[in-house]
C-alpha cells in the first residue's frame, strides 16, 4: 500500500508499506480521509518524534472497514466508520473514572502504532473494546467524519472550562483548534474574543463568527479584553498555541473565579510565572486539556452528523497522499486552517 512514512525530523517519504493484517479482535480500515493535526507538523519538526522510527502519522481517520480479525462482533466489512485514535486499557484507575485520555497503558494511532496517512490502517482491539469505532451514515462525507477527533478535543476542553451561555471566552491563537474552540463556544452561547497575529487567520475567525478579533501586534490584548468586559476579564481563557511566553502573558485576561486553560501543548520543560496571590484570592482555576475520551468522541460524531456544528467550514485545503509534502508545508507556514488528506476515490 501507499503510505507517508516518517523517518525523522523534516523527513517524510511517500513509500510502499506492507498492507496491515488484523490480529484477533482487530480490524483494518481502508482510509478515505485523514486530518492533518498541528501535532503531526510539530512531530515532523522534531518536537516529540516517536521512539520507534520509521512510522506513519495521522490520527484523525475515517474510512471503510476492509478486514476483520477473529472474534470481532458488531462490525462488518464495508461499514463506514470514524475512529477514536487512543487505545486504552479500560481497567486502570483513570479509565474506570472515565478519564481514558490519561490511561496508564494507552497507545494509539501515530503514537505507538502506525496511523492514517496511508491507504489502510490497523485498528487495535483496545479501541474497538472502548467503543471507539463509530459507524457513520451514508450521507456523511468521510472528510467531515475525520473531524470528529479534533472536535472531541474541543468538547473535552469545553467541559473543563465550564463555559455557559452568556460567558465571554477568549481564545488565544486562531489555528484549527482555536477555530474549533470558537465554533463550540458559540454553540454553547458564549461571546468569543479571538487573539491572533496572522492577518489571514484573523479574517477567517471573523468569518466564522468571532465577536471580536484582536491583533496583538497592534493592540494590547489585556487592555482590549478589559474594555470589552467592563474591566472584569473573561470567564474562560483558552491558549490554543504552544508558546509559553504567550501563555504566561494571557493569564491576566481571566476573570475572578474564571478558568485559564492551557490547551496547546507546550514544549518539554516549558515554565511560566504566575501571580500566586491572585490565583488564591480570586479563586482562579488553571488547568490543561489533553485529547478526549470515547464519550467526547461519540458526542463529536453526533454533532457533526446532526449538523449542529458545521464542521465543514473549518476545511480550507484538501490533499492526496501524493501531495502530503505540500500539505505539511502549508500547515507549517500557517497558510491553511484545516487540511484533509483524501485517500482513494
Brief overview, please?
With 345 residues, this protein is of the alpha/beta class. The protein has two domains: 2-146 and 310-342, Quinone Oxidoreductase, Chain A, domain 1; 153-288, Rossmann fold (3-Layer(aba) Sandwich), CATH 3.40.50.
Can you walk through the features of this model?
The chain is α/β, with parallel strands linked by helices. It folds into two domains: 178 residues, Medium-chain alcohol dehydrogenases, catalytic domain (Quinone Oxidoreductase, Chain A, domain 1, Alpha-Beta Complex), CATH 3.90.180; 136 residues, NAD(P)-binding Rossmann-like Domain (Rossmann fold), CATH 3.40.50.720. The chain is 28% helix and 27% strand. Strands 3, 5, 6, 10, 11, 18 and 19 form a seven-stranded mixed β-sheet that branches. Strand 15, helix 9 and strand 16 form a beta-alpha-beta unit. Helix 5 packs across helix 11. The longest helix is centred in the middle third of the chain and has 14 residues. The protein is globular and about 60 Å long. The two termini are 15 Å apart. 48% of the residues are buried. The model has no long low-confidence stretch (mean pLDDT 95).
Keywords:
Quinone Oxidoreductase, Chain A, domain 1; 7-stranded mixed sheet; 6-stranded parallel sheet; 12 helices; alpha/beta; single chain; 345 residues
User: Average pLDDT across residues?
Assistant: 95
Q: What's the number of extended β-strand segments? A: 19
The separation of the N and C termini measures 15 Å
Radius of gyration: 20 Å
| CATH level-1 class of the largest domain | Alpha Beta
CATH superfamily of the largest domain: Medium-chain alcohol dehydrogenases, catalytic domain
Oligomer: single chain
Amino acid at each position: 500500500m501507499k503510505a507517508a512514512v516518517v523517518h525523522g525530523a523534516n523527513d517524510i517519504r511517500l513509500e510502499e508499506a506492507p498492507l496491515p493484517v488484523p490480529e484477533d479482535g482487530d480490524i483494518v480500515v481502508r482510509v478515505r480521509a485523514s486530518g492533518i493535526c498541528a501535532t503531526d507538523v510539530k512531530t515532523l519538526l522534531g518536537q516529540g518524534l516517536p521512539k520507534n522510527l520509521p512510522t506513519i502519522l495521522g490520527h484523525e481517520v475515517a474510512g471503510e472497514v476492509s478486514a476483520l480479525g477473529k472474534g470481532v462482533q458488531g462490525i462488518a466489512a464495508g461499514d463506514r466508520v470514524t475512529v477514536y485514535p487512543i487505545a486504552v486499557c479500560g481497567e486502570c484507575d483513570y479509565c474506570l473514572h472515565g478519564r481514558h485520555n490519561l490511561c496508564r497503558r494507552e497507545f494509539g494511532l501515530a503514537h505507538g502504532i502506525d496511523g492514517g496517512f496511508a491507504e489502510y490502517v490497523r485498528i487495535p482491539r483496545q479501541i474497538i473494546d472502548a467503543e471507539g469505532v463509530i459507524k457513520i451514515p451514508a450521507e456523511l462525507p468521510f472528510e467531515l467524519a475525520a473531524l470528529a477527533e479534533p472536535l472531541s478535543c474541543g468538547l473535552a476542553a469545553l467541559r473543563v472550562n465550564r463555559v455557559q451561555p452568556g460567558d465571554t471566552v477568549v481564545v488565544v491563537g486562531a489555528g484549527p483548534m482555536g477555530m474549533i474552540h470558537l465554533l463550540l463556544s458559540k454553540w454553547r452561547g458564549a461571546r468569543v474574543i479571538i487573539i491572533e497575529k496572522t492577518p489571514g487567520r484573523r479574517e477567517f475567525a471573523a468569518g466564522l463568527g468571532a465577536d471580536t478579533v484582536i491583533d496583538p501586534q497592534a493592540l494590547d490584548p489585556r487592555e482590549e479584553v478589559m474594555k470589552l468586559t467592563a474591566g472584569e476579564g473573561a470567564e474562560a481563557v483558552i491558549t490554543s498555541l504552544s508558546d509559553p511566553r504567550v501563555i504566561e502573558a494571557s493569564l491576566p485576561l481571566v476573570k475572578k473565579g474564571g478558568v485559564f486553560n492551557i490547551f496547546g501543548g507546550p514544549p518539554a520543560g516549558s515554565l511560566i510565572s504566575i501571580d500566586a496571590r491572585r490565583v488564591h484570592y480570586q479563586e482562579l482555576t488553571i488547568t490543561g486539556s489533553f485529547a478526549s475520551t470515547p464519550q467526547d468522541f461519540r458526542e463529536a460524531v453526533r454533532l457533526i452528523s446532526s449538523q449542529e456544528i458545521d464542521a465543514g467550514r473549518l476545511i480550507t485545503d484538501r490533499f492526496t497522499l501524493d501531495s502530503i509534502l505540500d500539505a505539511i508545508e502549508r500547515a507549517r507556514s500557517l497558510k491553511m486552517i484545516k487540511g484533509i488528506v483524501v485517500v482513494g476515490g
